[in-house]
Amino acid sequence: MNEGGLHHHQSDILVIGGGLSGCWAALTAARAGARVLLLEKGYCGTSGVAAPAGPGHWWVPPLPGAREEAVKARLDKAQGLGEATWMHRIMARTWQTLPDIGRHYQYEPDDSGRIRLNALRGPEYLRALRTYCLAAGVQILDHSPVFGLLRDKAGRVAGAYGVHFQGALGPYRAQAGAVILATGGCAFQSRLLGAANNTGDGHLMAAQAGAQFSGMEFSSIFSIVPHNTTMSRAMIYSFARYLDNAGQEIAPDAEGQSFLGVARALAQGRVLCDLSAAPETVRAQLPLISPNVMLPFRRQGIDPFQERFPIDLVGEGTIRGVGGIRLKGENWQTGVPGLYATGDVASRESVTGPISGGGAVNAAWALSSGCLAAEAALAEGHVSTGELEPFTDNEACSNGQNGSDSREKTIRKQIQAVMLDAPTQLSRNAGNLRAARNALENCHDSLTYSAPGGSWRQRQQRRETQALLAVARWCTASALERTETLGMHRREDAITKASDVPAYHVISSGLEHVQSRREAVHA
């Protein structure tokens, strides 16, 4: 419906984000009989980090003791932050639901003729999910970024507003019984493959509605890419050796961390990667599992298993990191009535602890959290009526003039200089964290007083800049709060060992004034 140039949409469930988690959430709700609207910033089926990848899934059969052993192994790595109940839920739902994609996905046998249900080719996986959603009745609106959430008179989240850049052009309001955020993590616009749209938009929306964040200090993770490319698929690099500009091998440090040495060597010059130790089975299966990985090498005429090649490091932020919106209870609720969070936008500490979930656990989390959040939202069964209003007054549905993006571009570069500097992120100390905090606060002061208005595209870019900055400030405040080394968060100035400190979460919040505090696990 269009009234005075403003498009109106109504649904039972509104899903924001059309990646892996968003599609599974929308599909689950639609198959239960709900009217579902999915709003995607890019194109659902190609947007997000899973689309160009080769997602495996945490795939543990319900055999006697199998899942208990898998949970124990993960809890041992979680260092007090993991929860067995959540892990079992994720494994059980993944095992139950993932085979459903076979209705629209063409599996290929491996070299032994076996079908691996848990390992899918990302481009075809996401295309199949889009097809499945449409067949189930989900209404998908592509190129329709969301600018913020709407609330009813009771303060409950009841929709969202934004602009359509394709199809029915112009601003819109989407009213819904519940909203599921599936906007992904934030990579600070690094060269991470598939992450161009992952600018923290959902984090900003949630914060404006009053949500809090947990584990944002676990954001210091970087991946290897061939030099001047975006191909950041990490599996083959588990067999890699790295050599500095003088030809000396870069040895892992005492804790087995090699990327810090790589980062410092890159600051001095070129670093070469040697994949000659990769097993023949991996080389043979790679094109089947991750068909995109070999493309940059082919284009450059490089055989990566026979020749050494130069590499870069790209930041993955909260995508392969851990932190995100703090979930309260067991139903993916955010603490804000009517708002749910799934996938990488939510904190995954309960299943990963302070280390990355990699591809398998993260993919299983995305699938399962999407399904379970949709079921929880449907069970609540709320219907909002009456007038809705935005949580903020940032020009919800008006257009302005004379906007400029030069300041936003400068601020983005300053944010990247802080969050994508591998040496200081991989080895943090109070000095560099305070410097980062001060730089980000200066950005905040500059952005706060930037001129409003501009075209819809300019306003979208400003919104993304605000989100990037907000996520960077929460990450930095949380890193300052956790003074010991834990998982991927490494403090070179740590005085105490993590094992000497009772396990706790770092909770961060706030936009104008960022706050962080410690909360004991299970408090």
Automatic annotation (TrEMBL):
UniProt protein name: Oxidoreductase
Highest taxon in the source lineage: Bacteria
Domain Fumarate reductase/succinate dehydrogenase flavoprotein-like C-terminal: 413-499
SUPFAM superfamilies attached to this UniProt entry: FAD/NAD(P)-binding domain, Succinate dehydrogenase/fumarate reductase flavoprotein C-terminal domain
Species annotation: Asaia siamensis
Family matches, as InterPro entries: FAD/NAD-bd_sf, Fum_R/Succ_DH_flav-like_C_sf, Fum_Rdtase/Succ_DH_flav-like_C, SdhA/FrdA/AprA
Gene: asfA
